[in-house]
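[step 3/7] inverse_fold.run input=structure_tokens len=182
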């Protein structure tokens, strides 16, 4: 920590100013924008929310290495946790998969939030993107059902961060999606 950074840190501590934790939000824009807006409205005073602002339009490129690197450097870096808002078709989206891939590559915490639009299947299971499922199964990622309660979200993020301490549980072996499934 440089002297100026240290002075800023101590000054903020003395004044009671704390920086909001940075949280990256991954979601399917076409179906789940409403839920992102709700999440943002409820939690933006507590967290510094980052999102991709539609990678497809932003990067206008077919070069996967460039997009992958850009996701890591421009979206995931600086955050400590990625929250995946899981709607009924989120599992079909390649950029959601890539954002999870980048999160795991950076060894950041991962939290899935099941939206009210995602209903359980006949076996009472929720269909989420494969990479998220892999890491819930390996006990690296955490998941919860949608909530408006800041305390529950805070506990869920803390739990995801605790799970993320065990980086040996990361399962990032699945091939990245090459295209959207619908």
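[step 3/7] decode complete -> sequence:
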């Amino acid at each position: 920590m440089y002297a100026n950074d240290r002075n800023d840190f101590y000054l903020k501590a003395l004044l009671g100013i704390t920086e909001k934790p940075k949280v990256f939000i991954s979601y399917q824009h076409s179906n789940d924008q409403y839920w992102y807006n709700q999440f943002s409205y409820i939690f933006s005073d507590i967290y510094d929310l980052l999102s991709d602002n539609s990678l497809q339009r932003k990067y206008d490129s077919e070069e996967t290495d460039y997009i992958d690197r850009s996701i890591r450097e421009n979206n995931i870096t600086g955050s400590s946790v990625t929250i995946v808002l899981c709607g009924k078709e989120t599992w079909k989206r390649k950029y959601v998969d890539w954002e999870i891939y980048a999160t795991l590559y950076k060894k950041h915490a991962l939290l899935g939030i099941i939206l009210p639009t995602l209903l359980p299947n006949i076996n009472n299971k929720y269909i989420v993107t494969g990479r998220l499922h892999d890491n819930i199964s390996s006990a690296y990622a955490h998941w919860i059902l949608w909530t408006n309660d800041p305390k529950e979200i805070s506990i869920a993020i803390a739990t995801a961060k605790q799970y993320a301490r065990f980086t040996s549980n990361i399962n990032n072996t699945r091939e990245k999606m090459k295209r959207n499934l619908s």
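[step 4/7] annotate
Residues 29-43 form the longest helix (15 residues).
The radius of gyration is 17 Å.
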